[in-house]
Write a structure and sequence with these properties.
Layout lengths: L8 H8 L9 H15 L9 H7 L8 H8 L6 H13 L9 H13 L8
């Protein structure tokens, strides 16, 4: 008899590949719209300051702006990198040591970026 905790890595990976079709949460729709608009926009030249660009377009990409600011600023200390390693230590445990890098990367991304969107799970 197998228990609920006996799952293979392939079973877990397959669950992540299932799209959330039909999920119509308004915040998800706004995020999707902002990302689609951003990706459809022409790329700017290298001589434009990215922080200035995001500040100018804050109203246009309101939901993406806080994430861009977090990604573009230089951290004043090593604390953010230490937090990242701490987060990785939480994800990789002795009982969860066969987690693929791609999945761990996604989990870390979600752990640190969902709060920026003020998205309550």
């Amino acid at each position: 008899m197998t228990s609920l905790t006996d799952t293979s890595d392939s079973d877990i990976e397959d669950e992540d590949d299932i799209p959330l079709i039909g999920y119509q949460n308004p915040i998800h729709l706004l995020i999707r719209k902002s990302i689609t608009e951003y990706l459809a926009e022409k790329h700017v030249t290298n001589n434009v300051d990215p922080l200035t660009r995001w500040k100018v377009n804050k109203q246009r990409y309101g939901l993406l702006s806080p994430i861009a600011r977090q990604c573009l600023v230089t951290p004043p200390t090593s604390v953010p990198s230490e937090r990242m390693f701490s987060g990785a230590g939480i994800i990789y445990t002795p009982h969860r040591n066969r987690l693929e890098g791609k999945k761990a990367s996604k989990l870390l991304f979600l752990k640190y970026n969902i709060p920026l969107l003020k998205f309550d799970c």
